[in-house]
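Render Alanine/ornithine racemase family PLP-dependent enzyme in 3D.
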Amino acid sequence: MAYLKLYREELRHNFQFLDELFKKNGIKWGITTKLFCGNKAFLNEVIDLGVGEVHDSRVSNLKVIKEIDPDTVTIYIKPPPKDIVRDVVKYADISLNTELATLHDLSEEAERQNKVHKVIIMIEMGDLREGVMRDDLINFYEKVFRLPGIEVVGLGTNLNCLHGVMPDGDKLIQLALYKQIIELRFKKEIPLVSGGTTVTIPLLLKNQLPTGINHFRVGEALFFGKNLFSDGVIEGMSDRVLELFTQIIELSEKPKVPMGELGVNPQGETTEISEEDYGKTSYRAIIDIGVLDIQPNYLIPVDDNITITDASSDMLVLDVGSNPKGYKVGDMIRFKLKYMGALGLMSSDYIEKKVAD
């Protein structure tokens, strides 16, 4: 049976790298755990790191975090849907917001629960996902400051999450300046400028991050060591926190070219044939996962001799060439993962999750 393994020591190594980096630069940070889909064993590993602040986009996952450690600060990291406002106030210490109507609902619910709910207002800086338009910002904050039960603790932005707009010094300087403008205008202190995510880390490493940015929300760098500028691994970090183990269920030498009239497969694709493959054979291994669990382009074979041929719903075919490693039925094949692939595996009930030292 296929399973996903989290290596505890690799996770701790990446955490220590990031924690030292942020502390050296006077930056608060928290771990974004939406990748783990509420898996209690994996979330326990995150809490044990001692970060003290966890971010997630599912309130049910924040509930699990509070069950593990009620003292961990929880942040709900997307504008809350109206029908879960009650649970957001109950399980999230802070939420990211962009809509006045939702903030009114949070205000009323916070008063019902006899709480002060903290909020970070997200600002649109070009990627065109969530965020208040900059021309509306002063008017927006003026109305939010009047709401009972609501404490504004920061402003922030998301970049690279939808259209791939990359952070740069100019955008982040603007973000930090908005904090100063709002503080001067309303005589209020706003402690956090949450402009940092995995994509912003390379700027920090190059000493190109404006000093006003003092809060990061990090997931992909922690779990994959990812440098989103170079599409490589951040020097000094590990890309082996998570690995997928799959089992060979068939292994045969077969023709490289399918035989018969080709139509459209169940994924709506037509196979393209390379003329140089006619008459050739290779060993093809079938493993026990498919597109139900993960898209093949999110898998990175640990063995460089392996190439991914294609997948159906429950099986994935590998080309192992002349089989120089001598693979046989029952052997396990390991893969490193891209973020979206790991997310699919975490949400699959068919993939076992394990923790290892």
